[in-house]
From TrEMBL:
Protein's name in the database: DUF7704 domain-containing protein
Keywords: Membrane, Transmembrane, Transmembrane helix
Biological source species: Corynespora cassiicola Philippines
Keyword Isomerase attributed: no
Pfam families found in the cross-reference section: DUF7704
Segments passing through the bilayer: 12-35, 55-74, 86-105, 125-144
Domain DUF7704, residue spans: 6-142
């Protein structure tokens, strides 16, 4: 059987790490939506309201669950490089959107001065940027080739 030459880092990241992170994100959306909202906006700025925020966070959880299935199931089921690139390209759009939303949130909270950032702010931005860079590297072909390698 031949498969595209995709570096093992990407295989591990996209089929194990990404779905694991999303599993815990989905779990937080369902079990503790106030906690998830607090990672975006501190309760002092926007207190959690289950009627308005809860419904939206449950829907976000469902969408993240869908993404987790794309990573943990679909990408394990096929080594089709075009499909992997479509999934990762779409996810890169999500990552870039999250970075823009983060920036807008910081502006609205008057936290453009880095000294006002909380540890969670740093984590959110750095982690999202990190995964976006992984996707850019993959889509750019770093560690990926169309050459087929024979798998036992």
């Amino acid at each position: 059987m031949t498969t595209p030459n995709i570096h093992s880092f990407y295989r591990i990241w996209f089929t194990i790490v990404d779905p694991t992170v999303l599993f815990f994100t989905v779990l937080t959306c369902i079990v503790s939506p106030a906690t998830l909202l607090g990672t975006i906006l501190p309760p002092s700025v926007v207190p959690y309201d289950s009627l308005s925020h809860g419904i939206l966070l449950y829907q976000i959880g469902a969408l993240y669950a869908f993404m987790g299935i794309m990573y943990g199931v679909l990408q394990r089921a096929t080594s089709d490089l075009r499909l992997w690139k479509i999934v990762q390209g779409a996810t890169l759009m999500v990552d870039l959107s999250l970075i823009v939303v983060f920036y807008v949130s910081m502006v609205k909270q008057n936290k453009t001065d880095l000294s006002k950032w909380l540890p969670g702010d740093w984590f959110n931005l750095l982690f999202t940027t990190w995964v976006a860079l992984i996707r850019v590297a993959f889509l750019g072909g770093l560690g990926v080739s169309e050459d087929k390698v024979k798998r036992p």
